[in-house]
Amino acid sequence: MKLSEETHKHIDEVISRYPQKRSASLPLLHIVQEEQGHISDEAIEWIAEKLQLQPINILELVTFYPMFRRKPIGRRHLRVCRTLSCALNGAYKVCDSLQKEFKCGLNEVSPDGDVTIEFVECLASCGSGPVALLDDELIENIDETKTREIVGRVRNGQN
Ligand code: FES
Asked: What is the model's pLDDT at position 159?
């Protein structure tokens, strides 16, 4: 499978930490998703072979844990918290505005490939909701102005 040389090394190092190879299943899924953006059928087969397991052993983890994605995502990943505090402070409105701006539904890639928007549960910043993660950056107190800023940053390719 196509992974960078560094990732291959990292994977071998992670596997060596465990007395039983199968214990490295979840870490390997995270590493592969980090590089490829999602977990493809090819990745499932490759990880299974690497850990001397059957593909079904890996597939059941991917389908059980919601943090693993089976489909590619956009260049940027926007995760909007929808848990109570954020919901009461307008998270659904923020999410609607973002979907309209990028012309895409939840969990889809926008037509320009720029972004995938998802709802997630509590991001542990309940006092400053609504909050969202733009890739790994937490953005708090999202109002209309901040929504426009997020849209601008994603469209301009800014971090
Ligand atoms: S409810 Fe949104 S961060 Fe906790």
From this structure: 67
Domain segments of the chain: what residues? 5-64, 76-155
Question: How remote is the CA of residue 131 from the centroid of ligand 1, in Å?
Answer: 7
Note the CATH architecture for domain 5-64. Answer: Orthogonal Bundle (1.10)
Task: Provide residues with CB under 6 Å of ligand 1.
Answer: 81, 83-86, 122-126, 129, 131
Ligand 1 center–CA 94 separation, angstroms: 14
Q: End-to-end CA distance of the chain: give it in Å, rounded.
A: 29
CB of 38 within 8 A of CB of 70? yes
Please give the distance, rounded to the nearest whole angstrom, from the Cα atom of residue 21 to the centre of ligand 1.
36
The pick from 80, 85, 139 for probing ligand 1's pocket by mutation, whose C-beta has the most ligand atoms within 8 angstroms, reads 85
CATH superfamily to which 76-155 belongs:
Glutaredoxin (3.40.30.10)
Claim: this prediction has a pTM higher than 0.85: no
Model confidence at 1, in pLDDT bands (50, 70, 90)? confident
Specify the ligand 1 atom closest to the Cα of 85: 1
Ligand 1 midpoint to CA 143 (Å): 15
Question: Of the candidates 137, 123, 138, 115, which has an alpha carbon nearest to the alpha carbon of residue 87?
Answer: 123
Q: How far apart are CA 147 and CA 62, in angstroms?
A: 32
**Of residues 158 and 23, which shows the higher confidence score?**
23
- Mean pLDDT for 40-67 is 96
